[in-house]
Structure formats: C-alpha cells, structure tokens
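Q: Could you write out the predicted structure for this multi-component system? I'm mainly interested in how the pieces pack against one another.
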Amino acid sequence: MSLAAGPACEACPHGVGAAAGAPFTCARRQLGPGQHLFSAGDLAREVIFVRKGALRLYWLLRDGRRRIIGFRGAGEAIIPEEGQQHRFSAQAVTAAEVRAIPLTPFHAAARSNSTVLVGLHRQLARERDAAYELIAILGRHDAEASVAAFLLDLDDRTSSGTPGEWLQLSILRADIADYLGLSHETVSRVLTAFRQRRLIEIARSRQLRLLDRAVLVQIAGKGDVDRKRIGVSA
Amino acid sequence: MSLAAGPACEACPHGVGAAAGAPFTCARRQLGPGQHLFSAGDLAREVIFVRKGALRLYWLLRDGRRRIIGFRGAGEAIIPEEGQQHRFSAQAVTAAEVRAIPLTPFHAAARSNSTVLVGLHRQLARERDAAYELIAILGRHDAEASVAAFLLDLDDRTSSGTPGEWLQLSILRADIADYLGLSHETVSRVLTAFRQRRLIEIARSRQLRLLDRAVLVQIAGKGDVDRKRIGVSA
DNA sequence: CGGGTTATTGAATGATATCAACTTACGTGG
DNA sequence: CCACGTAAGTTGATATCATTCAATAACCCG
C-alpha cells in the first residue's frame, strides 16, 4: 500500500520524523501465530505497518462467533482513531513482523508533510472502500459468489503477477468462513465444487491455484458491482 | 457529525476558508426526491455536507439489484477521495439540501487548520467503522436481528432524544431491504412481527415508533459485537 | 508414529428468497 | 371531494440454499 511504500516506514526513522522535525521511534515487533497485536477496547496508540506475515482484524459477537473484518498482509497498514479505543482486535495469522509508530508524532508529522497526509487519507478511504466491497459481497447471500470473490481478491493482493501461481493460503477455512459470514463446512463444500469443476487446484489443504480465472470472475460477478451500469443518473 | 457541527460548514464561508487564508465558495444545492447528487464513476470534486433531508449511497450490482451502503442525514458528510472517481452513487431519498465544498481548497484548509484535519480523519474513520458495523450485521444471517439493529441505529441518529418519539421513516421498505441484504417481503414480515409483539408501532406505513427498546436491543444483540468479551488476548 | 487440529462429506432442519395475489396508501385530475 | 391509477406494502405457499449436527478423513507437529 502507498503508505508503507512511502516515506512513512521504509525510510524510518529518517523519513517522516526527520521531515517533521520531530524524530520518533519506529518500534519493530515480532508476533507468533495467534498472538494478538492489540485487542478491541485497548487504547489506540500507534499506527501499524505490516512488514511480514499477515494479521486478521476481527470482532467477537455475543453468540461467540467471530466476525473477521479484514486481513492485512505485508505492505499494508492499520490506522486507528487517535485517542480512541480500538474497535476490533488484531491477531497474527502466521508469524508476523510489524512496525509501530506512535500516533501523536505520526499525526504531527502528517500535518507538516503533505505526502504523508495524503497517504493517510488515501489509506483511510481505501479501508472504507474495502469495507464497502465486503458489504457488497455479504449482501448477496450466495456462497459460491462470495468464495469466488474472496479467492480473486486474495490472488490480486498476494500474487506477484505470474498467472496460475500457487497461492499460499495461510488462512484457515474457518477464517474464510468468518470473513464471508459462512460456515466452514460451506466454504469447504464450495472449494470442493470448484476443484471438481477444474476452476481451482488444491494441494495439501492450504495451497491453492486458480485454474480458470474467467469462470471464477463470472461466478463472483453474480453479486459484484456492475462497473458499467454505475453511471445511471436520475 | 463532528465535521458538520464544527467550523467547516456552520461558519462557512467565514470558517475554514478564512482560517486557511484561502476563502472558497460553499455552494448550496437543492435536490428533489430521487435526484442524484453524483453517480458512481463521476469524478469526485467536492466534500458534501447534508443540511436537510437524507441521501442514500448505493451501488448497482450486475444482476440489477441495488446494494445500499449507507444513508446520510442532516448534519452528516460525504467525503470522497481526492482525484478519484466516486465509487458509489448518491441519491436524494426525500427533498434534500446540501452544501458542497470543492475538495482541493478543503484539503488545503485542512492542512493549515488542525481542527479541520482531525475532524476529517475522524469522519473517515467513522465511515469506515460504520461500514464495519454493517458488516457485523450482514454477516449474521438473521433477518430480525438485522432489522432491529437498523431501527435502533435509525432511532439513535434521527431522534432528538425524546424517548418513544415518532420516527419519520422517509425510507421505503425496499431501501431497508437493499441496505440489509434482505428481500422487501422479509422486511415487511419482520416489521409486522415486531408490531404484533408490541415492540414497535406503525402508522400509515411510513411512521414508526419504538415501544420496547430493551427487547429490540436484545433481538439485535444476537448478531451484535460482544462489548464485554472483546478484550480477550491470545 | 500418534494425538490434536483442521478439513471433508452426509443427512436433516430451518430460514429466507421467490412467485403470486391482494390490500393499502397516495397523488392527480375530473 | 371523490374516482381512479399507480406505487408501495402485506400476506401466503413453495422451493432453495446454507446451517447444523455428526462422523470420518487428512494433515501437521512433536
């Protein structure tokens, strides 16, 4: 994402801090699988940049279910509201490494460095828009469409561009289920159906490859936004 | 919302613009019911503050369905990404009045006025968090919980604090359905069930009053975030 | 190799969508 | 002010799809 690739973290501690005339520490932190970076209710103190591995952001529901809001992989950021409590929990899926910049100096830096400011806004707007995309998926109750959309998104975000590449699915079935609002059995059934239709290939449960992107796009498209009809005016 | 209540609009054109040393026009615009303020794909040029009435923000899906992302009532704002296309459409539900501030001078103002900056961040973070709340609702497939949560939210946002007040439900059943990812028949059935259980009162289809907030909260709670268990750490 | 976790598969239940008929609400013009 | 027509809302019957419960199988780590 733009922020992480920008001066905020790559050049830290000589980037933003220096530019702002207010150098600050950019703590590196290691997380083991399942370890929490923070929990909902904790006071938000830092902006997080994921360097390695992946985190899941989630809520627990009253009935004990887990609602996963999103995942953040290497190069992505987690931006909380200053002075507020975290509204969700962040937990490492795999072993992960993050950098944490205290919020106050970061905001101070953003004020004096418009590159950072614009990046910050863009990141927030993107998180919002990503949430809207997920809403679009969840609204249409169609398991196949949801899973197809998820796989395509995952492929877009993680693959290096080589088509037909193997996806390292560090995420469990239950993660996908909690993200898409489905049961893990349904996710399993859909993946099996896709495999039988030669749309994907699965190796040892956790590695998977998209074989027929076109058809997956079509399946996902059932609940997807119509990018052609969006210009309709009153 | 904080932004609209703050200097950004109330004091316009003598607020932000003046403070930034870069006065700008704050165009007033009137919208009739069903009229579009902008459509998805349009270039985003302005920050919008809703003064009167309500707007719905939505996408059209490929299959012709409409996915409503949210509503914005008086006092709320719509903040797009600078230089980007709008990702959703904004349409007046009722007759509405908005103020539009061009993005570029607004951002310039935000840079030099930290009150505006903080308000801007907060608004973006809130939109994101509101989207997350909706995700929590949509993920749990439970029509009664969804509708109850919607009614409570609507009541919180529109009522002046007087309990048992009549809600002016300018929103149609189909709007609620497209927002919650349900069919309008299901919405109707749930509302009828609530009425029969004396949880709400409906007058002439469009006006409604919450009679038993406690029970509604309980019903909504089925899919709601557990505010007590959120602190669980690994 | 073994024990715990994760994944798959099956059968039955249940909730919501869908299709369809009917009623109510509302604005318009006679 | 009433009659009419259209749009919105309600209600019922049916079908579909995802959940749930349950059992087996694959996987992974020590």
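A: Regarding packing and overall arrangement: The CA atoms of residues 60 and 66 of chain A lie 5 Å apart.
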